């Protein structure tokens, strides 16, 4: 299956807050609904989104995933999320089993075997040579060149500014900054039209993504490319794998997605603060969603490439624009 992708190469450090607010640790990815909302906000600034729009950019995007590319002329190694319900073998060596369990990211050239294209053949077994290609949480296909660390992080100290009331004091806090080496970075997949995506990226690349954009973090350059993912034929497997944050369309679809003992997922609460002035002291409404890598039932063997919906999280107050959250997800067939 071929997808259009956008590669984001960061020219400044990147920091992405955990929901618990611990700035001393940065996440390594940005979820699809966060990026989608940032693109809508960017388009609104240049008059491309109407206040009465339905939040639909004419496409569905994945979450941001890591890619490794040392030199500009090198071929990039793209990674995709390890499914939550991955089929792991019973390894004789306990240390190897622990190593395999740590895998969170899979080289896209191996993804077909994870999804079950090779008639259930699995790349992890007691005699597999692939296990030695596990680097930290990444499973890498054999390369001609040695695979090197493509990102680092460092913690810096910053100081909070006292508020105007005089009831608070300057306090130091720690911020974890992620740096991508060479031409590495994060990328996302797109299913659908891309004209609005590119207009939004043209604004967003200078404003930055993630946290602490006001101090220059998260600025990037972007490049359009494509990726081929080997997967079972759509409509032939009784399960989906999500590559985006997913909010089901209705209760009926939710019940259908969870209708199997083999489903595996992680739920997350999505909401947060409104970022547009003068509403920055207000919170959005909140909703629960499924994270990328979740595996869902598809007993009817539907052949959709995207599922889910866009929701309105505007609080019940006088706000002159809608707060949209995209819960539409790109899905791939999988045999768990």
Question: Secondary-structure blueprint of this entry?
Answer:
Layout lengths: L1 E9 L21 H14 L13 E3 L3 E4 L8 E5 L12 H8 L3 E3 L3 H5 L18 E2 L2 E2 L11 E9 L12 E9 L4 E8 L2 H13 L12 E9 L10 E4 L8 H7 L9 E4 L16 E4 L4 E3 L8 E2 L2 E3 L11 E3 L2 E5 L3
Parallel strand pairs: 5-7
Antiparallel strand pairs: 1-10, 1-11, 2-10, 3-4, 3-10, 4-5, 6-7, 8-9, 12-15, 12-19, 13-14, 16-19, 17-18
Helical run tally: 5
Fraction in beta strands: 25-35%
Q: Unreliable runs, pLDDT <50, ≥5 residues?
A: 20-26
Q: Rg from C-alpha positions? A: 21 Å
Summarize the amount of helix as a percent range: 10-25%
- The arrangement of helices and strands along the chain is EHEEEHEHEEEEEHEEHEEEEEEE
Structural class: alpha+beta
Tell me the distance between the termini. 19 Å
Q: Report the average pLDDT across residues.
A: 83
Major beta-sheet overview: 9 strands, mixed
Query: How many β-strands, per DSSP?
Result: 19
Shape, principal axes of CA atoms: globular
Account of the 3D structure:
- The protein has 336 residues and is α+β, with helices and mostly antiparallel strands.
- It has helices at 32-45, 94-101, 111-115, 195-207, 251-257, and strands at residues 2-10, 59-61, 65-68, 77-81, 105-107, 134-135, 138-139, 151-159, 172-180, 185-192, 220-228, 239-242, 267-270, 287-290, 295-297, 306-307, 310-312, 324-326, 329-333.
- Helix 1 packs across helix 4 (195-207).
């Amino acid at each position: 299956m071929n997808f259009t992708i956008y590669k984001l190469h960061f020219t400044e450090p990147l920091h992405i807050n955990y929901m618990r607010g611990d700035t001393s640790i940065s996440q390594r990815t940005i979820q699809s609904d966060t990026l989608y909302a940032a693109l809508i906000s960017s388009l609104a600034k240049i008059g491309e989104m109407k206040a009465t729009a339905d939040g639909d950019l004419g496409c569905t995007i994945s979450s941001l995933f890591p890619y490794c590319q040392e030199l500009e002329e090198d071929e990039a190694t793209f990674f995709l999320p390890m499914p939550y319900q991955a089929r792991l073998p019973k390894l004789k060596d306990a240390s190897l089993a622990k190593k395999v369990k740590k895998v969170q990211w899979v080289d896209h050239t191996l993804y077909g075997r994870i999804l079950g294209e090779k008639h259930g053949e699995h790349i992890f077994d007691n005699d597999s040579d692939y296990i030695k290609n596990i680097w930290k949480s990444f499973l890498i296909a054999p390369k001609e060149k040695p695979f090197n660390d493509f990102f680092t992080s460092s913690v810096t100290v910053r100081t909070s500014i006292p508020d105007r009331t005089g009831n608070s004091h300057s306090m130091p806090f720690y911020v974890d900054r992620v740096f991508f080496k060479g031409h590495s970075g994060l990328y996302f997949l797109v299913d659908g039209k891309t004209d609005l995506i590119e207009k939004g990226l043209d604004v967003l690349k200078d404003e930055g993504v993630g946290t602490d954009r006001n101090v220059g973090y998260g600025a990037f350059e972007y490049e359009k490319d494509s990726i081929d993912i080997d997967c079972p034929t759509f409509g032939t497997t009784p399960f989906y794998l999500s590559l985006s944050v997913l909010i089901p369309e209705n209760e009926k679809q939710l019940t259908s997605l969870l209708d199997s003992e083999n489903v595996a997922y992680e739920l997350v609460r999505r909401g947060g603060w409104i970022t547009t002035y003068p509403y920055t002291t207000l919170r959005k409404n909140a909703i629960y969603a499924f994270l990328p890598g979740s595996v869902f039932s598809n007993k009817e063997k539907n052949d959709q490439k995207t599922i889910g919906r866009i929701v309105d999280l505007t609080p019940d107050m006088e706000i002159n624009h809608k707060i949209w959250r995209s819960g539409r997800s790109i899905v791939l067939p999988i045999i768990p």
